[in-house]
Design goal:
By secondary structure, this protein is an all-alpha fold. The protein has helices spanning 15-29, 41-51, 56-69, 73-78, 81-88, 95-110, 119-122, 130-139, 150-160, 170-181, 187-202; strands spanning 208-209, 229-230. It has a two-stranded antiparallel ribbon. The chain starts with 14 loop residues before the first helix and ends in a 7-residue tail after the last strand.
């Protein structure tokens, strides 16, 4: 599947302040997760596949166990599919394991064993969607590319498109995400994408926007107008 092109948008108003405040908060509050200690593309891919439908707290133990068994992409590519499923057992959604296994073989055969770094190439691999392609490009290769999962989409919608709310299209959200990281190749791209994801997981959640304690409140179109509204009780973006 070819990668969708991301339209070029101007950086949103208060983008610089949003980034600055977000990164400062992340340095003090970001969780120390094992896949944040590596830039190994294979390890990042394994984590992203596991996180697709499973919570962080459950993934940690499986991540270590899987990598002990298959420490490299080459080792995974050589494995029998029944053994890969066994290593995945307990995590559920076994199609992820099948896709990861096929991906390892495709990368070995078609890319000489090197996981691509460009989202346009990553998205053609088995089981890799637009978000996962962006995540691997950013978290393994530190590319200045957006990685927008449901948490990040929610933060961008509330912070920069509150009037559109749920009507903010995928295209619009990706354009804003791209504008926020543009020109920031390197550790800054990695940190921004990790940080905005963390904010969506811990502060700006689906159930409640904790605007009163949010580090980016003054740069957020929603938070600058209100504080601590429970979204299940009051409809909001
Ligand atoms: S200020 Fe509120 S709406 Fe804005 S990002 Fe923070 S928690 Fe979300």
């Amino acid at each position: 599947m070819p990668a969708k092109s991301t339209p070029r948008a101007a950086a949103p108003v208060r983008a610089a302040e949003f980034r600055r405040r977000l990164l400062r908060w992340f340095r003090g509050h970001g969780r120390d997760l094992p896949w944040r200690r590596t830039r190994d593309p294979y390890h990042v891919l394994v984590a992203e596949f596991m996180l697709q439908q499973t919570q962080v707290s459950r993934v940690e133990a499986y991540y270590h166990r899987f990598l002990e068994r298959y420490p490299t992409l080459q080792a995974l590519a050589r494995a029998e599919s029944g053994m890969v499923r066994e290593a995945w057992s307990g995590l559920g959604y076994y199609r992820r394991a099948d896709h990861l296994h096929r991906l390892a073989r495709v990368v070995l055969e078609d890319h000489g064993g090197t996981i691509p770094s460009e989202p346009e190439h990553l998205v053609r691999l088995p089981g890799v969607g637009r978000y996962t392609a962006g995540a691997v490009a950013s978290f393994a290769y530190e590319r200045a590319t957006p990685a927008i999962d449901t948490n990040v989409a929610r933060v961008i919608r509330r912070a920069f498109h509150p009037r559109l709310g749920a009507r903010a299209t995928e295209r619009r959200l990706w354009a804003t995400g791209a504008a926020l990281v543009r020109g920031r190749d390197g550790p800054a791209a990695w940190a921004f994408n990790q940080a905005i994801m963390e904010l969506g997981a811990l502060v700006c959640t689906a159930r409640v926007a904790r605007c009163g304690e949010c580090p980016v409140r003054t740069a957020c179109a929603t938070g600058s107008k209100r504080a601590g509204v429970t979204l299940s009780a009051a409809k909001g973006p």
